[in-house]
């Protein structure tokens, strides 16, 4: 992969965000800012990612931690500006922070407070991070490819959609709406800045083994049943498989890709 620059990742304390941090470290990032609401785990992930950096050959990398609630725009601005100040620039932003929930009985029984929380984290949080990061990226010079030295991009932002950004499933009112919203945000913002060298894409994971899907026996059971009947590859994805898609969309190998949604879902959405 071609990611020699500086990355900022939200939701970095768990699951896919954590796997993204490790993959950026392995694949050559010069610095990685880890953002999450969960401070204690974030500190553990910092140690893990730093170890990953020391294991690779060549340049070292710097890992910074920011405890942030992505629903709070002031906190987001401070963290994004703080990371850019420490690193001198921001090349890749990964919006992985997210929450999922089911509403028993569907839309008419969904609590408005639950709807608001999911929209606030998944959609508005993504908007806050994108807005703060894009302001910085648009002012910087393009990064050079670590492979052939060509000027690649001023910045690349990867937002987290989902297979539920393309289809709907029962009892997933707020989550499905939030992920459709993330794809809309990605498309419009990508067009706003395509000519300025800022690329904005979405990754849409299918059923993936992370704490989001495995922490409750009930959720895991439902996942396994769905996977057996609806995923052509017949298995859940791993966080590392999703991270590989994120690093592709972030780096030089995707230099002509913007405004798209990459489905990493074992074939789920082709049906
Ligand atoms: N796991 C799946 O099957 C799957 C499928 C499709 C999409 N996704 C999406 O991938 C992304 C990562 O999910 P995951 O499976 O790794 O989940 P996860 O629960 O393992 O990790 C999510 C992280 O987001 C953080 N977070 C939650 N609210 C936050 C807030 N307000 N501010 C800052 N951080 C906050 C959590 O602390 C956690 O560390 C999410 O956007 C999710 O919707 C996951």
UniProtKB/TrEMBL annotation:
Against InterPro entries, the record matches this protein to: NAD(P)-bd_dom_sf (IPR036291), Sc_DH/Rdtase_CS (IPR020904), SDR_fam (IPR002347)
**What lineage is on file?**
Eukaryota, Fungi, Dikarya, Ascomycota, Pezizomycotina
Say if the entry is tagged with keyword Ligase. no
| Keyword terms | NADP, Oxidoreductase
Q: CDD domains recorded for this chain? A: SDR_c (cd05233)
Return the Pfam families for the record. adh_short_C2 (PF13561)
Write the protein's name: Uncharacterized protein
Its family remark reads:
Belongs to the short-chain dehydrogenases/reductases (SDR) family.
Q: Which domain of life is it from?
A: Eukaryota
In the UniProt record, does the keyword Oxidoreductase occur?
yes
A Gene Ontology MF term for this entry? oxidoreductase activity
